[in-house]
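Listing S7. Sequence submitted for prediction.
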Amino acid sequence: MPKPVIDFSLYLVIGPRDCGGRNPADVAQAAASGGVTLVQLRDKEGATRDILTLAREMKTRLDPLGVPLIVNDRIDVALAAEAAGAHLGQDDMPLEEARRLAGPEFVIGVSIGSEAERDATPLGLADHAGVGACFPSSTKADADSLGVEGLRTLRPSLPLPVVGIGGITAENAAEVIAAGADGVAVVSAICGAPDPAAAARALSKIINKS
C-alpha cells in the first residue's frame, strides 16, 4: 500500500478535552466537511481501549470525506486503528523505532521547537514537522513559544513539509503561512467554535489566500 499523499494546509488537533463535552468524532467530521485536510487525535489521558475506539470512529467518519487520520504519540493505537500515521513529540518513541515498527508507508510527523531539537531529530525518517509554538497556546501551557520569527528562521533548514502549531487562530494564521509554513495546526480555533464547519471554512479561506 503506497504512502498517502497528505495535504497539510489545515491540520486539526483534537481530543476529548478540547470539544466542550461534544463527541470529538462529530466535531472532526464537521471540521473535515468545512475544509480541514488532516486530523490528529490527541488524548494523553484516556485508556488505550477508549482511544482506540475513538480513533476507529473518527476514521470511519473521515474516510468518506477523504481526510486522513493520524494519532498523537501512540504508534500502537494508530496501527490498530489503521490510521494513516502518527505524530511524535520529543519525549515520545524515538523516530527510528517508530519507523522500524510502522514501516515506510506510515506517515510520521515530529515536533520541532528549537534548533537543538531540529539537530537531534533524524528528519530523513519523518514526513512532516510540527513547528512551534508560534504563539502562546491555551491547550498546551507547557509549550515554549518559538514565535513566528523562530519558525521563519528554522524553515530553510527543514527539508520536509512544515506545519505551524501553537495558539493559531483565524486572526494570525496568515502570519504563519507567510513565515514559510505549508499549513497550520489548530485546536481551539475549531474545537472551541460553536460551528466547527464554519470555523474550518473561514480558516481555509485565509490559508488559501496567503
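Caption to Listing S7: primary sequence and predicted C-alpha cells for the chain studied. The domain at 10-209 is CATH 3.20.20.70 (TIM Barrel). The radius of gyration is 16 Å.
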